[in-house]
Amino acid sequence: MVVYRPEPDRDSREWWERIARHEFAVQCCDACGTTRFPARAFCPACRTEAWHWQEVDPEGRVESWIVNHQPFMPGAREPYVVVMVRLAAVPGCVVYGNWHGRRPPEPGERVRASYSRIDESLSLVNWEPVDG
Length: 132
Hints:
- 6% of the residues lie in helices and 41% in strands.
- A five-stranded mixed β-barrel has the order 4-5-6-8-7. The protein has a three-stranded antiparallel beta sheet with strand order 2-1-3, covered by helices on one side.
- With 132 residues, it is mostly beta strands.
- It has one helix and eight strands.
- The protein has two domains: 50 residues, no CATH class; 76 residues, CATH 2.40.50.
């Protein structure tokens, strides 16, 4: 199966490296403490360039989702569900990932991240229900 790999840039490279180690982190501004995702060079609140990675609990609530019926990737099973999750620890941040529940997601449902290891340098984030 062909795997389309994300192409990390200057700002996201370390996030992908952390996800490959199954570490869930967001950026935190050193000046004002604003947490953010996705990774960016400047703080959106104060425009400071100084920041560090902060591990956060990989839990949140389902904000929205789509059911994909298009064969965007060779070998991918269709349909598949992609969820948008608002992080509990960082309410201003949303993260996307595959749905790994036995049933369709529900609005506001509590979820926790899990990971699909593709190879030594790449893991993908999935979301599964906290309560079964």
